[in-house]
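hey can u check if this looks right to u? its 410 residues, i copy pasted from the old doc so theres a chance i mangled smth
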Amino acid sequence: MADQSLKGTNWGRVNIDDKNLSLSHLTQNVIKFPLKRITNSNIQKNDIVLQLSTDECAENEDMLCEVRFYIPPKEQKAEKKKQESNEEEQDEISYLQQVQNHIVKKAKIGGSSDSILTIHEVPLIVPRGKYTMDFFKKDIRFHGNTYQFTTDYKSITRFFLLPMPDEVNLSLVVGLENPIKQGQTAYNYIVMQFRKDLEAQIEMKYTREQLDNIGWKGIRLEYSGSMFDIVCDILSEITGIKVVSPKNFKCKNGLFCLRCSVVPHSGFLFPLEKSLLYIQKPVIYIKHDDIKEIIFQRITQTTQNKFFDIKIVTKNASHLFSTVDREELDNLSQYFNSKKLQVKKIQEENEGIKNGKDDSEDGSQNGNDHKLTLSQMDSDEDDEDFQAQEDSYNSVQFQQKVQKTRAVKK
């Protein structure tokens, strides 16, 4: 075994065996870690970016979560010349891509013939792209053209099947305890989208006996029907988690969601039986039990104001859902009241003016200090009185100052 380099050298040659990946300089290792820790590998310009699992680390422990190998363009050309005697297919693949393919294969983060079930071309909204899903005994591996990631079955916490407003697609939202990462972005939810009319027929690669041995006794050998039904049935059976769908709440137009915005993105808010769920970016999940207060803002009835905002204050944060259609105000009020959630309505502009007038009238009757309304402050009489007082004050004060100055000089 090579010794560990302590000189601070950060260059060398990548070595990959069946269990470990290492970067060595001369006869010493610069860095070395197990292949099983690699959860994703992708190419960014001249870099190979490796994302590492942190499941085995303690909460406050320092951890290595990403490694980048930079391969200079000159090095790539030199390696290509050395391999000119090989097959023509290899000449078409750059040295950078060859290293990437080798890592993906050895770390088993790409497609694999050892999987129990494979579903091709699954469209994902979050993270965006088309991925192939490989189901294994303990995890699911998603692999696409650029990114690959893995999620453990134990990390899945909830499922939601949501009918979209276009009445053509359905979104399957998968909640994760341990987020997946792509670059600097972490995703706590995976959002798949299926067409309602998409039919499929899927067969397991394992026999009935093999499925029973790994504990998948409820999984059938063959599935046929709508794709979203197949995926929901398989995931629910493996994890033991029920799929939640909207039931009682409906909008004015008969849909199960409200169109709104969470700056700077627009999306859809689904009021569910025990929670609220907003998709698409970002995915926001709010339990009813965590809500402290709900505030309706900008609900003044005017011809120009056709929208209002919903501010939801939870135990740890607050969320603002803006540009909600004002026609949905009554539906939402009934929904929150039925869930025994505290709702506060704020009529901002007109209510403030109205209150100002009432305070003014009460103050004048009681002889107390009164507040001027906007109409009073903008009146011509107020302007004239103020100007007259200002002119008289200036003239008197000026004469007094002149007299005092003359007296001092004498």
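The domain at 3-107 is CATH 2.30.29.220 (PH-domain like).
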